[in-house]
Amino acid sequence: MNAGDLTDFSPGFGNQHSSEAVPGALPLGRNSPQRAPLGLYAEQLSGSAFTEPRATNRRSWLYRIRPSAAHPPYHRVANGALRGAPFEETEPDPNRMRWDPLPEPPPGTDFVAGLWTLGGNGDARRRTGMAVHLYRANSPMTDRVFGDADGELLFVPERGSVSLCTEFGRLVAAPGEVALIPRGVRFRVELPDGSARGYLCENYGEPLDLPELGPIGANGLAAARDFLVPAAAYEDDTGPVEVITKFGGNLWAATYDHSPLDVVAWHGNHVPYLYDLRRFNVLGSISFDHPDPSIFTVLTAPSVDFVVFAPRWLVGEDTFRPPYFHRNVMSEYMGLIEGAYDAKAGGFVPGGGSLHNMMSAHGPDRETFLRASTAELKPQKADEGLAFMFETRWPVTLTAQALNSEHRQRGYDDVWQGLQRNFLV
Ligand SMILES: [Fe+2]
């Protein structure tokens, strides 16, 4: 979406936003007047405990046509290929894994029906850990609305835009942008390009935040002003709407007699947002050595970090410039939004992904090592692609479908074969 046009957005990260789709709908000076303006119902949506310190306290006040409480009972519906934490279908696996993109879904697959879980960690019921999902859809959600009580959802579109019609308004995220839906916020996914495919990080724990900058100073990496929060927009529709909620790892549904996207005005800091990864101010070495990839952190949380490998200049002298060989206590799921990644010569394609679990050894493949260790070290623009990483503190346990799927590349280990002995003694 055109992030340069701020008319329909409120910029900023973590601040208190407010918006009204109808003038006068937002009460001033109080949250819950005896009668809310325009006959609306006032409702608080909390994203943190009431007593959280100010810096981490999250809530929004919604002014809606009908209160959320007016709904019939929820009943369990099929999870499809969606799974939740704890992940216990397979044993944690130290092997390096890589996948091709998911096969195309059958016609008529909407966002919820197309969700496919790769794996994750922690426990949704204890609000800790994360999950890696993939989404693919070729049909818009109609008369269906989704919400996730288990965690916040970070959309990383790879092919086709997603239009996220939320309780707070509408965001359109195209490949190269990311969008976040906070815990509990309801939304419908429409498909401006007819179909869409991408990655989805579900964060069960404390919400994603901007990283501290330390000696970098007051500016750099992702700027708070580049995060865009939607303007209020509401639906005043009656008729059956299936509201699906993910709760404790499972899907539940209730049929409402109206659209729950009926919020006319709101204010608060528990809000959806959009961020254009091309706005990320990439920092790196201007002397020697490759910084740790934490320098590319866009958003951070105790359970998971979101890191982007955006176009940048490589100028290090006497330096092996691609990411070095490493073994980490962290576990890394990598995906590719477009192009190619500078540590892998082949096999890692847009829509695919790789998993390097805790302490598993990885780094440049043989071809990349040979090329980078003999290359002439002139300034070089690394702009062949846009890759990202969900980096998490605990090992990622795969779902059975991810371990056994036909699109998992058997023989991924081979990319490190042929790294021969070069020892000169
Ligand atoms: Fe890594």
From TrEMBL:
Q: Where are the transmembrane segments?
A: none
Active-site residues? 290 (proton acceptor)
Cofactor(s) needed: Fe cation
Q: Which reaction does it catalyse?
A: homogentisate + O2 = 4-maleylacetoacetate + H(+)
Give the record's keywords alphabetically.
Dioxygenase, Iron, Metal-binding, Oxidoreductase, Phenylalanine catabolism, Tyrosine catabolism
Q: What does this protein do?
A: Involved in the catabolism of homogentisate (2,5-dihydroxyphenylacetate or 2,5-OH-PhAc), a central intermediate in the degradation of phenylalanine and tyrosine. Catalyzes the oxidative ring cleavage of the aromatic ring of homogentisate to yield maleylacetoacetate.
Q: How is the subunit organization of this protein annotated in UniProt? A: Hexamer; dimer of trimers.
What protein name does the entry list? Homogentisate 1,2-dioxygenase
Organism, as annotated: Streptomyces litchfieldiae
The gene for this chain is: hmgA
